[in-house]
Amino acid sequence: MNDYWSMVFVFVLATFIGLGVIRRVSRLLYTPLMSLTNAISAIAVVGSIAVTGGEYPKAIRVLGAIALFASMTNIVSGFLITDRMLKMFKKQ
Amino acid sequence: MNDYWSMVFVFVLATFIGLGVIRRVSRLLYTPLMSLTNAISAIAVVGSIAVTGGEYPKAIRVLGAIALFASMTNIVSGFLITDRMLKMFKKQ
Amino acid sequence: MTYAVAQVAAILATALFIFSLYWMNDPKTARHAVVAGVSGMLVAVLATWFQPEIVHHGWIVLAIVAGFIVGIPLSLVPLTAVPQRTALSHAFGGLAAGLVGTAEYFLGLTEHPAQLTAFRTSAIVAEVILGFLTFTGSLMAAGKLQEVKWIPQRPVTYPGQNVVNIGVLVIAVALGVVVVVHPTAAWSGQVFYAIVGLAVLFGVLLIIPIGGADMPTVISILNSYAGLSAVAMGFVLGNKLLVTAGALDGSSGLILSIIMCRAMNRSFTNVLFGAFGTVQKTVATGEQKAWKQETVEGAAQLLEQASLVVVIPGYGMAVAQAQHRVRELYDQLTKRGITVKFAIHPVAGRMPGHMNVLLAEANIPYSALVEMDEINPDMPQCDVALVIGANDVVNPAARYAKGSPIYGMPIIDADKAKTVLAIKRSKNPGFAGIDNELYVQDNTWMLFGDAKAVIGELVKQLAGGGGLH
Amino acid sequence: MTYAVAQVAAILATALFIFSLYWMNDPKTARHAVVAGVSGMLVAVLATWFQPEIVHHGWIVLAIVAGFIVGIPLSLVPLTAVPQRTALSHAFGGLAAGLVGTAEYFLGLTEHPAQLTAFRTSAIVAEVILGFLTFTGSLMAAGKLQEVKWIPQRPVTYPGQNVVNIGVLVIAVALGVVVVVHPTAAWSGQVFYAIVGLAVLFGVLLIIPIGGADMPTVISILNSYAGLSAVAMGFVLGNKLLVTAGALDGSSGLILSIIMCRAMNRSFTNVLFGAFGTVQKTVATGEQKAWKQETVEGAAQLLEQASLVVVIPGYGMAVAQAQHRVRELYDQLTKRGITVKFAIHPVAGRMPGHMNVLLAEANIPYSALVEMDEINPDMPQCDVALVIGANDVVNPAARYAKGSPIYGMPIIDADKAKTVLAIKRSKNPGFAGIDNELYVQDNTWMLFGDAKAVIGELVKQLAGGGGLH
Amino acid sequence: MKIGVPKETAADERRVALTPDVAGRLGKSGLAVLVERGAGEAASFGDEAYQAAGATVVPAAAALFRQSDVVLKVQPPSRGEVRLCREGAALVAVFQPSAARDAVAALAARKVTAFSLALLPRITRAQAMDVLSSQATVAGYKAVLLAAAAAGRLFPMLVTAAGTLAPARVLVLGAGVAGLQAIATARRLGAVVSAFDVRPAVQEQVESLGAKFLRLEITEQAEGSGGYAKELSEETHRRELAFIAQHLKDTDVVITTAAIPGKRAPLLITAGAVGGMKPGSVIVDLAAETGGNCELTKLGRDVVRNGVLILGPANLPSTVPYHASQMYARNVSSFLLHVTRDGTLVLDFDDEITRDTCVTHAGEVRKP
Amino acid sequence: MKIGVPKETAADERRVALTPDVAGRLGKSGLAVLVERGAGEAASFGDEAYQAAGATVVPAAAALFRQSDVVLKVQPPSRGEVRLCREGAALVAVFQPSAARDAVAALAARKVTAFSLALLPRITRAQAMDVLSSQATVAGYKAVLLAAAAAGRLFPMLVTAAGTLAPARVLVLGAGVAGLQAIATARRLGAVVSAFDVRPAVQEQVESLGAKFLRLEITEQAEGSGGYAKELSEETHRRELAFIAQHLKDTDVVITTAAIPGKRAPLLITAGAVGGMKPGSVIVDLAAETGGNCELTKLGRDVVRNGVLILGPANLPSTVPYHASQMYARNVSSFLLHVTRDGTLVLDFDDEITRDTCVTHAGEVRKP
Ligand SMILES: NC(=O)c1ccc[n+]([C@@H]2O[C@H](COP(=O)([O-])OP(=O)(O)OC[C@H]3O[C@@H](n4cnc5c(N)ncnc54)[C@H](OP(=O)(O)O)[C@@H]3O)[C@@H](O)[C@H]2O)c1
Ligand SMILES: NC(=O)c1ccc[n+]([C@@H]2O[C@H](COP(=O)([O-])OP(=O)(O)OC[C@H]3O[C@@H](n4cnc5c(N)ncnc54)[C@H](OP(=O)(O)O)[C@@H]3O)[C@@H](O)[C@H]2O)c1
Ligand SMILES: NC(=O)c1ccc[n+]([C@@H]2O[C@H](COP(=O)([O-])OP(=O)(O)OC[C@H]3O[C@@H](n4cnc5c(N)ncnc54)[C@H](O)[C@@H]3O)[C@@H](O)[C@H]2O)c1
Ligand SMILES: NC(=O)c1ccc[n+]([C@@H]2O[C@H](COP(=O)([O-])OP(=O)(O)OC[C@H]3O[C@@H](n4cnc5c(N)ncnc54)[C@H](O)[C@@H]3O)[C@@H](O)[C@H]2O)c1
Q: What is the pTM of this model?
């Protein structure tokens, strides 16, 4: 139980940070920001790895591997495309 | 152990929030802000209450009571004076 | 020890993600943001991977390699396809969360029933619902944006839609409660599948009534859902990194969609709940040419992105005495390296040289003024023609409408610009008293209001760079 | 259940504290901040109090009542004494933390030796050192500010000071390590007392070399220390609310002192480490007045709060060609209902009527221009005198400095305004080539930079409403 | 078709009907341009410039008139010029037929097709030919310069070591084209400007130049056809005079431009009102040529009464010959191109512009 | 102590040394002010206004001079006026002693204490008395108005249905007080202005008015004492002439104000350079009184050469008598208060201002 409460605490604090940080983003950066948060949301990769690599039944691990693949795709394409877009912001 | 790490986590997140929130404070409000954070730092009152009200040796509880008194002074005077200062910011 | 390493890694990764988002505030630091994000992800992946519980590495490597193989080409889509790509990506993210949730549940069911506490089971159910609805919802959104032929682009609505949608969601949640209460009953697995099915269905239903214009906002909300499903996963796995990263993502998606709704003058709740009720009306007006309004934010953005802006002032600028604001706008744009020209029509205003008098008063350099004959050949290259209280002098009817009082008057070819932004107070005509089709052209956006006020707002946008409060 | 209540209370209190600090960003919402802070504190106190472990209530009530009795008068000190009061308050806070830490340690020592794990003991030691050094440090700071006679106001320095100070701290920390390693040895109690003693001593030593001008920054740092000691207490008690509130406090104190150092052109590390090494020099110069810099943000806020702003333009406005920016500023301020007057000195600029030419170009209405003789009687009522690139015409030396080339010239009495904001590029003198004491007056704040750029920033602040970048 | 540009013969007329630049353009569109020697000199356009632009310089007026199919002038033709005109030729100038009855009769007698651009309808597509507007622009500008040069004070406000100079208060009466330009020019110089006109639509236009509009509530309809003003009823006129007199008391400079087409200029400032003004004030009466807005105005003369200086300048545009000619040339060439098709004159009397401007044709006087 | 203000006798001098407003102030500080009848009339200050301000109007100059302890004038006294002066009285006016040797000798002979404000040191505390600055301000402003009124073109750029009028290009040579004011005024009217001066410090000042500075690299030190310019070496002068001639080619209006105290005005525009200018251009030479910056300038006359009009106006401030007098009066009264203590003249020759301005005292000529 104790730990769950820590989790909730952490969740609340992190939400505050998220709200605080994003408020000031310039409109110009909305699109890259979406790609970036998209990439970050692929943090589910952590769970996928745990499921895929653990000592579990194969069926479960297959689900994990699919999830891992999906997350990984997100991470790779998300960061790369963000970077690509940001490159275009360099001014003359 | 587990719980200590949660604590550290919480600490780090809260620090981020603190940094983020205060950066934008106007210079006009420095003095009231200091009083306010001064009052909030008296959150140590929570510990003092625990020590004072618990089933502990008297000597310990005396320490707690002194601490409680000190914190309480801070809370009361801190909030009151902050409010007093802020009242002066009302526009014509 | 490994536990401590994992915790330190989690804290580090969290900090990196926070910095990543923070640096995104400013184009100057935005590229650091990517570095921080990548580093955070790397730390997270490695720390997880090196935990002692991870014993099978083959599949992991395989899945990662596959991820790269698919991810790299996905990142090379043309920029016009970026929204679709992001939506697709969300679908993947949702899928991953849903699958992990499913795996966790059946793992509990088959191997460690004790682990299916009420808390964990609730978290799993939340993760699965959020994950799968994000999955199909994002797929639908991507399909709409990509104009896939068997997904209708325009909003599809039918009577009772709200009831159906909410019903599906309610049933899914209710089943979830059932599973939480009886996590290990013989039929629980079936119920769980039902939940998954309903979530998949709900994702589809959610997007069907939303039109293309609202898609960016929807994508942002789906992003938020993806983040929340990661939070749920974090609760399930007891992983604080997942919780923080997910929360960052969830909250930023939320804020972003609120900001975008405001900028586009949409009701956030409508978009959030799948446009229940009102959005249809605005979108479905159909063929007859309509006046399209742009927000100041949108207009500012358009101007910011332009490389050649042609300002066409008219009598309205004079009436509003907006010349000083126009100068501020000029300063803001030229500061960004944008070329700004003032196209002066010979009879703009109400006296010869009316515009000159005002622009000189505002100290617009003569070199920025261009005569009609000079600017017209360049108008097709103009990214934004900003018409400030001019009407007759940009009325294309002068070219062909024989009966019109302005027939034969040469005009400034504002209509040939890539985009037209026009500022006026109302739909009233100008001096000649005739309608102006320029205003209802496809690429024209109106900014209704007093020119001084509107340009003041534009300047504020460009100077302050937004902000919510 | 009580546990859950405590947790929810902790989350609620945390959220309230965060909002409290957030609302403090803006004078408009600042009073909500107090409400939020008080509510948060109330929630925290009640939730703690109603925990089942709390069995003795009498003393608690007593201590709280005593706190009110002392706290209320303390809050009524004259505003000039606010810094002292804050320092004193920090002393109380430090004392409380130190005492609780001591209590915890001896509680562990006498009753539950098992609780003195390395982690907890470290936390206790940290709490005690931070608490007691804050205690005496704050007392010293309060004494210096209150100009108590047996505390020297001016920085006291002596050779080897750094070594002594650092030595004391190092010994305290080393003893702390000893206690952590042997928390329950027979002599541990003694060692613990020694730590307390050294912390008390260090607090005194820390403040001795710091001069009055740096006191506000020091107080802010002490605030940060008080916050950190609360964090340590949170670790000891396993209380997350203490950790968050303490961290908020610690980080905000830190940021605040960094911002203040920057604004006052002080090195933060110097102030942080009790002026080890260099601050003496700057501070020891004693009476000689220093140039104080204001940030654009701060200046914007000052202007916003004013009800009468007198702009005093000079040659610098002309050189910078800042007249259009000045007009924007004028618009921004008058829009807020602030009265803005332009005080035109007869010889401002380099030709008769120089300022008129420029202000007319920017279309500042004649009615906003006031002659020197008319404005001077009103200057004491002026909230902010904004000096834009003027120098000689506001130099008080003209009133009394017989030898000076400008002696006898009537000047605009900018120095009599409540606050002076002065824009210029450097510390260079003006046409007459003489220093201007107005700039180093107590109520003068400099905005260094080209007038056009600085005013542009000010306008941006006022228009866009803030943001850091 | 040959276009002839004689040297203007009227006294003090420094403008020329065509500038080299515009002559060149006409040449490119297939018309031959003849220019009398020295025609542009007073406006700083030398003969070489015309030649360089492709025009032929003709030494004497007689030869020029003889060869020209269309003669372009600024002022109405003198008796002698009418006599020089070829029968059947066309002539374009600016005049009110009612004020030049002799010339009109002579032109008709000589079967000249004469156009007066003063009669141009004020419609959108005629704007490029609108000489009244273009010349009024020059007049409005120049009137302010005359006033500023004649005034004993500076226009802008100046705060100096020798005291503060108050800005001049300028009042513009009649805010048509010239009046608006006068407002703009006076404001440029830093004066505090207010304006008055009977047409209510003008208020917005005056304010669009940053000046103050003085509002007199008038119940009758003061705007006639074509955006021109009508004459006021006697009662309203009396109120107007009192209203203006009131405002003149603290005015330093007055520019009057009020006009009603084809009528005597309305009287706005009585001798009594001048008496109420401060000594040192200046009135520039742009309506001097049509009788003056001020009772004391004498065309072309400076009158001083009670220390108030009243200028009634004649033909102001001619005193800014370079730019006035440039605009005139553009106007007249636009008109010319409007009435020619493929290098010959084509008269379409269904066309509003042609119909309204044609004063004589085929021996007939079309405008009385 | 009685202060006398005679009516100016010089031809074309419309200013008056004291205005009613300032006379009133002097009265309040204990001085009796006598004003000759009609003294302020040409500047629109009537005798009643002086009386209302507490001054006494004296019918004739002779009586006025007889009674006055200090006589305030604008122009240097004529022979007749010197004769009218009371022995031992004081007189304040503006003149260069070197250019008025006769008057100086006569004044000394009559033991008049004469001050010339033209000799005032350009120091901060003398700014309120600085007639050169105040009158140069008026001259700079008026010069532009003269140029604008004389030019064949409009100053501002105007885009109209009759074509676009290019803005006038104005060049100001010498950017002292008059030059800067000319720049400001021309810019107000909408001209494109550039300026040239030999003192490098001027560049910033010119740019501070939004005009362009034409930069000629000069190696020698062109700034002398008191912020005034020095004469240039022959080589530099030659380069300067060529540089200016180059820029004159595409200039429409030139205002020249270059001066070197006590010397003939430097020659900046040769006849050859005028030949290179476009016909219709205008030069206003403010240095005409000290020899002219243009070789062709004739003081008080309009010269036309190659279509270029060269104006050499004399005494421009006098043509704006109201404001020029107002500023002069403030200046001269500041000076008067500086040299009086408790209602009597106190001469402290240790004081820079008194020392520098005093031309004759106790029968001695103190400035050659
Ligand atoms: N230049 C001359 O010499 C002259 C002389 C006489 C007539 N004209 C005629 O005037 C016309 C000039 O064309 P134009 O395009 O300049 O003017 P226009 O056709 O009269 O149009 C002006 C537009 O500005 C808008 N407007 C008015 N006040 C405004 C305010 N405060 N804020 C924002 N918008 C405002 C009006 O729309 P809302 O009412 O909806 O705001 C109107 O549509 C031509 O027809 C020309 O022939 C010119
Ligand atoms: N009005 C006249 O007729 C006349 C004529 C001749 C002389 N004067 C003399 O000129 C002086 C006028 O006084 P004043 O106060 O107007 O001017 P000032 O004393 O010359 O001071 C001007 C100030 O503006 C600052 N500055 C210059 N450029 C700037 C820029 N781009 N941005 C921001 N600040 C800038 C300078 O400081 P930084 O360099 O540090 O930026 C300087 O301290 C008097 O001494 C007067 O006697 C007047
Ligand atoms: N449509 C076009 O293309 C076009 C072109 C040029 C001018 N115009 C319009 O033509 C109209 C006339 O302009 P104009 O300059 O030739 O006018 P104008 O010279 O005939 O008269 C000048 C001004 O005097 C005013 N006036 C008349 N009687 C008055 C009185 N008793 N008191 C005060 N003011 C009085 C008139 O209202 C007018 O504004 C204006 O409305 C102008 O906008 C239209
Ligand atoms: N300190 C004060 O209180 C005060 C008051 C008024 C004026 N001033 C200063 O006095 C100085 C002189 O002003 P002024 O208007 O009486 O000067 P001025 O009338 O003597 O000369 C006018 C200008 O001509 C320029 N000039 C001279 N020779 C030239 C040449 N060969 N080519 C080009 N330009 C040439 C001079 O540099 C000067 O700028 C200026 O620096 C002014 O700022 C100071």
A: 0.77
C330 close to C359: Cβ distance less than 8 angstroms: no
Per-residue 3-state assignment (H helix, E strand, C coil) for E111-163:
CCEEEEHHHCCCCHHHHHHCHHHHHHHHHHHHHHHHHHHHCCCCCCCEEECCE
Distance from CA of B22 to the nearest CA of D (A): 6
Which of C303, C299, C412, C405 shows the shortest CA–CA distance to C355?
A: C412
Strands (E), D417-469: 419-424, 444-448
Which residues of E are catalytically annotated?
A: 122, 127, 130, 133, 228
State the pairing for strand pair E163-165/E158-160: antiparallel
- CA–CA dist D75, D77 (Å, integer): 6
Cα dihedral: D91, D93, D98, D100 (round 10): 150
pLDDT digits (tens, 9 = 90+) for E196-234: 999 988 999 999 999 999 999 888 887 877 778 888 889
D277, D270 contact by CB (below 8 A): yes
Model confidence pLDDT, tens digit, residues F165-221? 999 999 999 999 999 999 999 999 999 999 999 998 899 999 999 999 999 988 888
* Residue C66: CB atoms within 10 Å: 17
Say whether D99 and B67 touch across the interface (CB within 8 A). Answer: yes
Q: Which residue of E lies nearest to F177 if distances are taken between CA atoms?
A: E160
Between CA E315 and CA B31 the distance in angstroms is 72
Index of the ligand 1 atom closest to the CA of residue E127: 47
The answer to whether residue B38 sits within a structural domain is yes
Q: Which of F68, F116, F133, F135 is catalytic?
A: F133
Phi-psi region of F224 (alpha: psi -120 to 50; beta: other; left: phi over 0): beta
Residue F333 contacts E where some CB pair is shorter than 8 Å: no
Paired strand residues for D419 = D384
Task: Say whether A44 and C59 touch across the interface (CB within 8 A).
Answer: no
Nearest CB among D346, D347, D356 relative to E157 is that of D356
User: Which ranges of chain F would DSSP assign to H, the alpha helix?
Assistant: 20-28, 47-52, 61-67, 79-84, 101-109, 131-150, 177-188, 202-207, 234-248, 271-275, 321-339, 352-357
CA distance E292 to E269: 9
In a domain, B73, yes or no: yes
Nearest to F191 by CA among F163, F150, F157, F165: F157
C469–D contact, CB cutoff 8 A: yes
Q: How far apart (Å, rounded) are the C-alpha atoms in residues E115 and E110?
A: 14
Say yes or no: CB of residue E257 within 6 Å of ligand 3: yes
- Classify residue A53: in a domain, yes or no: yes
Q: Look at the alpha carbons of A61, A64, A70, A75 in this order and tell me if their dihedral is positive or negative.
A: negative
Q: How many CB atoms lie within 10 A of CB E48?
A: 10
Catalytic residues of D: 392
Using alpha carbons only, give the angle E242, E248, E249 rounded to the nearest 5 degrees.
105
B52, part of any domain: yes
Please pick, among C392, C415, C435, C450, the residue that the annotation labels catalytic: C392
- Residue D407: is it exposed, middle or buried by C-beta count within 10 angstroms (0-12/13-18/19+)? middle
CB contact under 8 A, B9 and A14: no
Q: Give the H/E segment covering residue C248.
A: helix C240-263
Q: Is E198 in the pocket of ligand 3 (CB under 6 A)?
A: yes
Neighbours of chain E (3+ CB pairs under 8 A): C, D, F
- C117 Cβ neighbours under 8 A, 6+ residues apart: none
Predicted confidence (pLDDT) per residue in E255-283, tens digit: 999 999 888 999 999 999 999 999 999 99
Q: What's the complex ipTM?
A: 0.74
Chains D and F touch (3+ CB pairs under 8 A): yes
Contact of chains B and E by CB distance (3 or more pairs under 8 angstroms)? no
Q: What is the DSSP letter of B57?
A: -
Sheet with F192-196, edge to edge strand ranges? F212-213, F192-196, F169-173, F253-256, F282-285, F308-311, F302-305
Q: Which residues pair with D342 in a beta bridge?
A: D311, D369
